[in-house]
Amino acid sequence: MGGEMSMNNDHQSESVTDNATRTEQDKTRTEQAKTWTMEQSLRASELSYRRLFEAARDGILLLDVDTGRITDVNPFLVELLGFSHDEMIGKTVGELSPFKDVVSNQTMLERLQKDGYVRYENLPLETRDGRKKAVEFVSNVYQAGDRNVIQCNIRDITERKQVELALIRLAAIVESSDDAIMGKDLNGIITNWNKGAEKIFGYTAVEMVGASIMRLIPADRRDEENHGLENIKRGKSVEHFETLRQTKDGRLINVAITISAIKDASGEIIGVSKVAHDITDRKMAEDKIRQLNVELERRVIARTAELEAANKELEAFSYSVSHDLRAPLRAVDGFSQAVLEDYGTQLPEEGRRYLQIIRDGTQKMGMLIDDLLTFSRLSRAPMNKQKVNTGELVRTVLDDLRLQQEGRQIDLRIGDLPMCAGDPALLKQVWINLISNAFKYTRLCQPSVIRIGCTREQEQNVYFVRDNGAGFDMRFADKLFGVFQRLHRAEDYEGTGVGLAIVQRVIHRHGGRIWADAAVNRGATFYFTLEGEIKL
Amino acid sequence: MNQTTSAEILLIEDNPQDLELALRALHKAHLAKRIQVARDGQEALEYIFCEGTHAGRRIEDSPKVILLDLKLPKVDGLEVLKRIKGDPRTHAIPVVVLTSSKEQNDVVESYHLGVNSYIVKPVNAESFIAAVQQLGVYWLQANQPPQI
């Protein structure tokens, strides 16, 4: 600002002699004092204006009203636009690159002439270094001393615009959410109500804003809401809970609710935001699963009971077989023997032979019953699984069986037998049956060759018992493990046909497999695996 | 089978053939002049505890051994065993279970109840006769029962 504001101070002392003149002089002195005071106050005013101009957080341009050229620029605008003070002085606004395309000097001046001010609410600018800014641009014409001046105020509203945009986005997100998003004050009066809330609860925003949240809460859950509000007021967070709410049409729905405090700038709690998610479908699915589980449980219990009943029946049956089937056999054999003992001498040779056949039959029948009972017992006996030293087990079995093979030439070799996991009593029966079969079917061999060992196949231990005996025709291999199935005549090799059935049952109960490889008169090999591996 | 004199053996057996074979074996070996037979559990208990038709018998005149079948009409063998071993007046009487049952449950339960021996009746006639005769020899001659 130049000297246009300075006042005329050009008074000289005059020679005044008369009263009138003195009065005149007094007047003049008063005027002079007044002028001086005005001058002082103007100076002060200018100083404070200057200070505002320098310190303002708005950009300020001063233009010459006739030329439209910039006469002054404040430091804030220098900083905002990135042009120096000197670069801007003497230019028109339109000549400054940030305003080039948005403010036409001519138009602005014309409008200023007409209206006294021009206002652009949201001008997009680019600063010298390319940053995008949004500004509010207001021009006024005012009189400064004897001249008119244009003052342009340029306010940086970039941040405000961004906040506004974010708020618009947020509002759109809130509005488009499927969840009910609500605001309420600390008295439970609803302040916000989005489309999701409308959809879930059936009430429109018009119906709900200003109404109490209690409208949504079933009578028996009112305490829950009061309690929640109390907690929020006390600063406790009630984060997430599931509950029931009532819709406009009276339905009860399951909702998952998240609530949190709304605080003002000073951190004081002014309300509560509430997000409710409709979980009725999920709850129904959960109920369905629960129902299915209950049903499944019920079926398992029923099935277990059935199995237990069946098992009991089987036990009763076995008991009956064990007890009742033997008694008549004992009578047949006992009285045949009594006949032979008491009247043997009176019978012809043939008669005595027939009685002997009857007695042999009863013995055979007795063995069948015993084997059948063993089979049944081993099938249902509880498993007592543990680490089993196979080598030791096999040697114990051999010690017992060899006693019955006295006088025979047997070439028997035992390979490495790794430990296994199983029921020792049941596995012992397996080895007894397989090894005694080897002894039995090599009876006619000179010498009998028996090999017991274990190989490793597909990461599993495969135990085997091999002999060079009678073997069998592989065409009948499928019958091998059936109960009472025999591939040899009783006259050649005695037996009931239960031994291998027992072996198979035990192996299967251990989760293993059993198979055989054989040829008639060229021996047989029985292989079996046991479930899993044990780390030893 | 005199009811006034005390029996040496109480034979509890419902099966007539088994009964006859057992008696035959005992007689052949000249064992046990006095044998009391009971055909079901009820009858056995009446004899042992001197009730019903045996009310006149003195309980102190106990047999030297009781041979007990397990599967019996009316009161089963295990129940009879339980009553004998559960009563201080009779629990010292030797009881031998003589049964067709090889069931482990029966064996274990019998020993739990205090049986003195458990014999499975063989199907083979010679074995059966031998078993009964050995029982007789052992319990009537070799064994020393307590003086009740």
Structure description:
The complex is a heterodimer of chains A (536) and B (148). Chain A has 536 residues and is an alpha+beta fold. Chain A has 5 domains: 3-47, no CATH class; 56-162, Beta-Lactamase, CATH 3.30.450; 177-278, Beta-Lactamase, CATH 3.30.450.20; 284-375; 384-529, Histidine kinase-like ATPase, C-terminal domain (Heat Shock Protein 90). Helices cover 45% and strands 23% of the residues of chain A. Chain A has helices at residues 19-55, 75-81, 85-88, 105-115, 158-176, 195-201, 205-208, 222-233, 280-343, 349-380, 390-402, 424-441, 499-509, and strands at residues 59-64, 70-73, 117-126, 132-144, 147-156, 180-185, 190-193, 240-246, 252-263, 269-278, 386-388, 410-414, 420-422, 448-457, 460-467, 514-518, 524-529. In chain A, the strands form 4 sheets. In chain A, strands 2-1-5-4-3 form a 5-stranded antiparallel beta sheet, sandwiched between helices. In chain A, helix 10 packs parallel to helix 13 and helix 11 packs across helix 12. Mean pLDDT of chain A is 85; it is low at 1-16. Chain B has a single domain (9-140), classed as Rossmann fold. Chain B has helices at residues 16-28, 41-48, 77-85, 104-113, 125-142; strands spanning 9-12, 35-38, 65-68, 95-99, 117-120. In chain B, strands 2-1-3-4-5 form a 5-stranded parallel beta sheet, sandwiched between helices. The longest helix of chain B is centred in the C-terminal third of the chain and has 18 residues, at 125-142. The model of chain B has no long low-confidence stretch (mean pLDDT 89). The interface between A and B is medium-sized, with 25 and 21 residues.
